[in-house]
Each structure stands twice: as C-alpha cells, then as structure tokens.
Amino acid sequence: MSRRTLIISPAPTANGDLHLGHLAGPFLAADVHARYLRATGREALLATGFQDTSTYVVTTARRLGVTPKALVARSAAQIETTLAAAGIDVDGFTGDEDQFVKQVLRFMEQLHAAGRFELRTVRLPYSPATGQYLVDGFVRGGCPRCLADGCAGLCESCGHLLAAGDLIDPRSTADPNDPVELRDARVLVLPLERYRERIREHFDRYGAAMRPHMAQTIDELLSRPLPDYPVTYPISWGIPAPFPEVAGQVINPNAEPAAWSIYCGTLAARGRGIPLAGDDELWRAGADTKVVYFLGFDNTYPFAVAAVAMLLAADGRYLLPEEFVTNEFYELDNAKFSTSRGHLVWGRDLVTEVPRDLVRYHLAATSPETQRTDFSRAALTRVTTTRLVDPWNQVVDRAQRVPQGAPLPVSAFSRSVADRIVERFAACYELEYFSLTRAAETLTEQLQRLAGRDVRPGEEGDFCHEVDVVLRCAAPILIDLAAALPEPGIPAAGTGPTSVLPRALPRLTGPVG
C-alpha cells in the first residue's frame, strides 16, 4: 500500500485576496496532484492557509490606511473564499489561531533548549527618524548576488538569502527619502552551515521533481558555506520571541515554515477525519508520510533550505520533505502581477465571470512551470474555445448520435487504447515529470482525436468507452465537468470493461468577452 502524501502549498501573505498569479502557481498544481492521487486510489492531504506575521501585512496596511489586524481579517476570509471558488479542495487551512502560535513557539523552544540557536551581532538598516530597524518588507535595495532590486529577506530573482544589512543602497519602503544607516543588533540565528552536507545528501537522494531553476539554485547554495539564518528580528510585528536574550524581538516569519508545515499536516489530517496520537504525528520520523511542496520559486530558500535545516536540528525527531515542485511568475500582459499598482486579475472575479473549468484549464495550459508565462483575457477566450470547448462539444454531438439505453460492447483494442490514454495522463500527473501544461495538451489531443473520429457501426461502444476514460483522466482539472461521471476514479491498466452503457454528456459553455 502506498504512503499517505501530505501536499503543502506555502501560505500567501494576508495582505489581500488571491490574484491569478497565485492560483496559476502552486495552488492549482497542488490541487490537481491531490485529486489525481485520490483518483488512483491513494491517500492525499492538501494543506495551505494564510500568513499574518509577514512585514508585508504592515506595509500594505499602511498604504491602504487600515490597521494590520483589520487587513489580516479581511484578507483571510478572501483567500479562503477564493480557493474554494477556484475548486482548490483544501483539507487544512491554517491561520493566526492560538494553536498555530503555540506550535511555532513549541518548535522554536525545543531547538533553543537544545542549544541549536546562537546569539549573533548583525548589521541591519536602521531609520533614525522612526527609531526602527528595517528588515524584509520594510526595506529594499539591490541584491549583492544578482543585483536585482527588491525587498530584503529573500531575493525573488536568484532565490538566495538576502540579508537586510547586505542590500545595495538600502532605502525604507515607507519613505524612500528617509535617511537609512546600518546599526548593530543582537539576534538569534540558526547556523545553517552545520547542516549543509546533510541537506546536500537529502537532495541527492530525493528531489526528482525539482525543476531546472530550483535545481540550479540548490546546487549554487550548497556549493559554498551557508550563512547564518535569522530566527528573531528586533521589530514589533510578528510572534513574540520567548527568549530572554532577545527580549522584545519577534520570530522571523521566514523561520516559521518548518513549524507551520507540521501544523498544516495536523489540520489536514483532522479535516479528513484521520485520528492522530499527537499534533506532530504525521511528521514524526518513521511515519508513513510523504511530504511534497508545491511552491513558487521565490520560496525555495525558506522551505527547501532553512526549514530542512530546522527539521534536521531536531535530532531525528522529524522526517524531511521529499519533493519540491516550483513555478515561476505568472504575468499579466507581460508584466508581473502587482496589487500596489492595481495590475492584476482577482481569481474570485474571473471564476464568477468564466466557467470554473475553463479557468482551471487555461491556467493549466499556460502554467509558469519553468519560465514566466502570460495571461490575457483574449488568450483565455481563444485558447479555451479552440482547445477545449469546441472539441468537447463536438464529442458531445457525436455521443448524442449513439443509441441510448442498452450496453454496447467494448473491443480489446479500445481497452488497450484506454490504457495508453491513462498512461499519457499519468506521465503528466505523477511527480517525477509533473506538468499541468502537458496535461492540458494531452487533453486537447485526445478531444480532437475523438471529435474527428468516424464512428462506424459496431464501434459506438469503443467511442463511448474512450470518451469516458478521457473525462476521468481530465477530472483533476475539469472538476465540474467530471461531476457527470457516475463514479470517480481513473481506471488502472488492464481493468477496462467489456461493455459500456451510453449516457448523456453535458456541454461546455464558452467564455464571455
């Protein structure tokens, strides 16, 4: 029996609703993989949530003229609603509840008590005018490695850790004209270099699903000494650090992923009605769990390096994530989605205007798997109409001409064809070569083949059988159309029926506008 798979997509920051860039990235991919595993008889849990401790909550709230807490409350409801509207079937949705905070603190206190954290003096940008240290979303500048401009913490371009004190020409995001100086601060860090060889050994063993950009970055990161990773920051927004040597500081939000992921697993298991002996049971070493992350490339460092190091620092208590499937940025009209500039399409708005299956298909067909891809409303209309709606409705028209009411024979040849269809889709859905783009292409190829097929007398059963198999294989993407199936599931090879009962198929409605 296969292991239970825990699928995690990193929590978006609770500073707004989800736009298409979010959905086209990790969320749709994670949902499709979870649905595929279940359709093939395997147990899968899907977890995500929202993060309220990020400094971007504060910067967005300041820009909008609202309090951070009010922004979090509004954004949390929007994120959960949008995921449901897009058909992202989440088993565990984390938030800012007390139990999550307790999990983070319990995890951190265990490592602190074991002497895994060390007190270090670091140089941080400081605003004399406000009396505040500037980290992460509070400060931006050039990355000393790739020179790209961005906020501190993590470089979205090269994926490396971007210490605030190393920024080129640092400037406050609240006021770029505010003079900034570097000052010393004492913070707790996790010395990542202690774990570099063990992290390398882990990725040598696993990581088959890594895409080229992440694989390159992991090789770069592990080919040289790893810098100390900040566990606490001298700022006021976040989970208060319970350590006396850094009184008044908070937990670095980018140091939360390991603890957050453990909490995710607990919520997802409970959401599926799975009894647990302890809050970290799914993550315990020896547990029959396979952990898989679907994440944006920019989350590589905190989840694949820092979080793995923290799990290793727990002295064998926890298992390690085995696979990481990343994506690049999804753009709108050839520019990055931007909430601050109003350059975006809200996911919830689109699925109320366009049938949900069409949105999911288009995001799959244009998924930013290995390079940036682009969304436009005109492309959505053109792609979904020509590649999905028209060929599917032609298949429906052919199916309507098949006599109804009595079983029809299915030939051995058609059963072998069905096995090949399943095999083609499986190659897209299994982790090693996971690709939503190829799954969408495979669906279009099969629909066009069936739409153009000349169904001769005596072959009606074969036609209906193959249509059924294609729809079953497309079900992880086309969740509403698949509701027409009498029962869910993708057939295993060699299990095809010898007869099939013809049935009416629903038509697809094309996009408007």
Describe this entry's structure for a reader.
- This protein is an alpha/beta fold and 513 residues long.
- The protein has two domains: 333 residues, Rossmann fold (3-Layer(aba) Sandwich), CATH 3.40.50.620; 125 residues.
- The chain contains 14 helices and 21 strands.
- It has a five-stranded parallel β-sheet, with helices on both faces. It has a four-stranded antiparallel β-sheet with strand order 5-4-11-12.
- Strand 8 and strand 9 form a beta hairpin.
- The longest helix is centred in the C-terminal third of the chain and has 24 residues.
- It starts with a strand and ends in a 13-residue tail after the last strand.
**What is the gyration radius calculated from CA atoms?**
25 Å
Secondary structure: helix percent: 25-40%
Under the CATH scheme, which architecture of the largest domain would be assigned?
3-Layer(aba) Sandwich
Oligomeric form of this entry?
single chain
Strand share of the residues? 15-25%
- Biggest pleated sheet: 5 strands, parallel
Average predicted local confidence, pLDDT? 95
At the fourth CATH level, what is the homologous superfamily of the largest domain? HUPs
CATH topology descriptor of the largest domain: Rossmann fold
CATH classification class of the largest domain: Alpha Beta
Short summary:
By secondary structure, this protein is of the alpha/beta class. The protein is built from 14 helices and 21 strands. The chain folds into 2 domains: 333 residues, 3-Layer(aba) Sandwich (Rossmann fold), CATH 3.40.50; 125 residues.
